[in-house]
């Protein structure tokens, strides 16, 4: 299996609100993902064709993820959205 970097992934940079690597190139991430998937270190994503690749603990600190901790004082706002016209709506919080 060959892992390639598409335009959807290339927009995952600092300031995008998405997970990104602080120093790794997209090509290095793709190479790591290819190895990890070959070793079965992935899970099913939110739709067909999407996989969540489990990165090796040795490089976990190379990534920034915008996930935050919530507590009883956190205020959440949700809306019904879809990414593409042909996809079903989902709740985005």
Topology:
Elements: H1 7-10, E1 20-21, H2 26-38, E2 42-44, E3 51-53, E4 63-64, E5 79-81, E6 90-92
Antiparallel strand pairs: 1-4, 2-3, 5-6
Structure description:
The protein is of the alpha+beta class and 93 residues long. The protein has one domain. It contains two helices and six strands. The strands form three sheets. It has a two-stranded antiparallel sheet with strand order 1-4. A two-stranded antiparallel ribbon has the order 2-3. A hairpin with a 6-residue loop joins strand 2 and strand 3. It is globular, with a radius of gyration of 15 Å. The termini are far apart. The model has no long low-confidence stretch (mean pLDDT 92).
Low-confidence stretches: none
Task: Domain count, please report it.
Answer: 1
Helix content: 10-25%
Order of helices and strands: HEHEEEEE
Portion of residues in beta strands equals 15-25%
Q: Mean pLDDT, rounded to whole units?
A: 92
Distance between the ends: 34 Å
> Structural class of the helices, strands and pairings?
alpha+beta
Shape: globular
Number of helices: 2
* Strand arrangement, major sheet: 1-4
Query: How many strand segments?
Result: 6
* Radius of gyration, taken over Cα atoms and rounded to an integer in Å: 15 Å
Major sheet details: 2 strands, antiparallel
Give a nutshell description of this structure.
The chain has 93 residues and is α+β, with helices and mostly antiparallel strands. It has two helices and six strands; from the N terminus they run αβαβββββ.
């Amino acid at each position: 299996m060959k892992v390639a970097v598409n335009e959807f992934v290339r927009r995952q940079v600092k300031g995008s609100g998405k997970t990104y690597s602080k120093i790794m190139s997209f090509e290095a991430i793709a190479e790591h993902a290819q190895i990890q998937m070959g070793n079965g270190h992935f899970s099913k994503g939110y739709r067909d064709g999407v996989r969540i690749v489990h990165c090796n603990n040795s490089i976990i600190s190379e990534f920034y993820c915008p996930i935050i901790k919530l507590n009883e004082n956190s205020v959440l706002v949700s809306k019904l959205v879809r990414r593409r016209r042909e996809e079903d709506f989902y709740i985005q919080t």
